[in-house]
Sequence to fold (251 residues):
Amino acid sequence: MVMDPLPRSKSPNEPAEASERPDLRVVRAPPEPTPSDEAIVALVLAGDVEPFGVLMRRHNQRLFRVTRAILKHDAEAEDAVQQAYLSAFMHLAQFAGGSRFATWLTRIALNEAHARARRRARRAEVELEAGGEVAMIPRDETPTPEEQSVGRELTRLLEDSIDALPEIYRVVVMLREVQELNTAETAACLGLSEEAVRVRLHRGKALLREAMTARLEAGAPSAFAFLGARCDHIVATVLERLRTTMRSAQH
Fold:
């Protein structure tokens, strides 16, 4: 009778079989959830001013856009945003949580922008009554890098939209709108009647508007961006003023 061999005992240094090896896979901890605005407000109310910078970075673009819509001037809109943050900080304890913090903050910014617009209008009225000239806010005619980029994008948008037109409309639009020839000159160049030029131009411009409107609507969320150095500047300026205020209150 053949006996089954006895199971061989493993040497301590002998590697374990795959089924016997321990599972050494690294289990990654789930990412920590981003704190809500309300959680950050609680930290600030507890005496830590620095987290207020996180709130500003989250809402800078929203507040700039809404104040810029009222004031129509970049520098004054930035000043309004800074003042809105200072006002919000000073009245932070009044935030009751009945609405989202972003909504509460936006209302403060809107109030500040409207107040500045009213003061501007009153100054204009006083100066008119006094027989003086109305002091208009000067517009910096030097285009910012953002404006230069927008200009290039609009030109590219127009060019691409014209390229997409059917040829019978594209040539007319190019000569009338881009080259700025009059109707008679365009008709002579193309061997068309002036009425045909007018009809094709009307239809071509309608198609152009439709195409550009669709693309502009898709790109609207990128308009009036407030990022990078401008965002950093407001955060640094407001935080420094808040730190100074806090230090003064402690002495």
Summary: DSSP finds nine helices and no strands in the chain. The domain at 145-222 is CATH 1.10.10.10 (Arc Repressor Mutant, subunit A). The first helix runs from residue 37 to 45.
